[in-house]
Amino acid sequence: MGGPIRCGVSRRVALIAPAMATPARYYAPFAAWLASQDVRAVVLEHRGSASRADMKAYGGDLLDWFDDARDALDHVVRESAEPVTWIGHSLGAQMLPFVDHESLTRVVSVASGTGWVGHLPGTMRWTAPVLMRSIGPLAMRVAGYYPGRSLRIMDDIPTGVMRQWSRWCLDPAYLGVDVPDAETRFAQVKTPMTVLSFTDDELMSLAATNDLHDRFVNADQTRQRYTPAQLDVDRMGHHGFFRSRHAGLWEELVLPYVARD
Predict the structure, then answer these.
(1) Is 126 helix (H, G, I), strand (E, B) or coil?
(2) Contact 113/201 with Cβ under 8 angstroms?
(3) What are the Serine aminopeptidase S33 domain coordinates in residue numbering (predicted)?
(4) pLDDT for the residue 174
(5) Minimal CB count within 10 Å: which of 42, 189, 239, 252?
(6) d(CA 112, CA 91)
(7) Is it the case that residue 134 has pLDDT exceeding 90?
(8) pTM for this predicted structure
């Protein structure tokens, strides 16, 4: 597990689990704002993501990242007695069945769903398989990691992570490809969830959002889907919610769902 970012000391805690190919520092403004609201924020850092050298050296995959998330939550729970809220952005919400979710009081899922290519919006449904079957593997053989920044398709990702994620995305079972008990794991999650999604998300369609959250069959969920106009913004997209220019939305859409003592 990479070093987490911690902000604030309070009577409640939020653990922020990042999206794929998104560094912990991206969430620093959001974490600092939580601290200003008396919420201690801890942001995960995906291993093997600190530099290109780290990516080349990292031999793990997505399930190793999920194990890291489990260990991080265990550490947070041991460190304090405050109620813990899990804030999962995209991939970060997919990790829930693999952590001690019984120790969580609330979950906030942001711009999250499965990555199955059949649910991708627009032309990505056809171009993503080409990336995952041809362009990506070739680029990884040459670079020693997935050079998303150079390809201008996502960001840089360790090879093992990209290979496993591609395998998941090419199958409607998604992570069930490598996790035989996935259905049972999802069904065991009973933590109340608030699900935020956005109509202009270029990576996550409504079908993908529903595909993931329908698997949490025993979790009480409130699903909220917004257009940019409803939020009075020009664009939200997949990553926009955590940008500092949207700080005015955090008090309304996140803070009420961060668990209190």
Answers:
(1) helix
(2) no
(3) 11-95
(4) 98
(5) 252
(6) 7
(7) yes
(8) 0.94
Integer angstrom CA distances of residue 239 from 197, 202, 218, 243: 11, 10, 28, 8
Name the one residue in this structure whose structure tokens are 């902000």.
Answer: 7
Beta bridge partners of 40: 13
Distance CA 248, CA 94 (A): 26
pLDDT attached to residue 79: 86
Which structure tokens are listed for 52? Answer: 């290109």
How is residue 163 written in tokens? 């290979």
Side chain identity, residue 91: L
- What is the domain partition of the chain in residue ranges? 5-115+181-257
State residue 76 phi and psi, 5-degree precision.
Answer: -60, -40
Q: Which residues contact 179 (CB under 8 A, 6 or more apart)?
A: 63, 185
On the CB side of 248, CA atoms within 13 Å amount to 4
Taking 60 as the threshold, does the pLDDT of residue 234 lie above it? yes
Token pair in block for residue 104: 């969580």
Tokens of 103: 């120790």
Cα 133 to Cα 103, 140, 162, 169, 193: the distances in Å are 39, 12, 11, 11, 34
- Per-residue pLDDT, averaged over 240-245, amounts to 96
CATH superfamily of 5-115+181-257: Alpha/Beta hydrolase fold, catalytic domain (3.40.50.1820)
- 191-202: buried (b, 16+ CB within 10 Å) or exposed (e) per residue? bebbbbbbebbe
Tokens of 206: 């409504």
The alpha helices in 7-88, defined as continuous H runs, are: 28-36, 52-57, 62-79
pLDDT of residue 112: 98
Selected residue with higher pLDDT from 9 and 35? 35
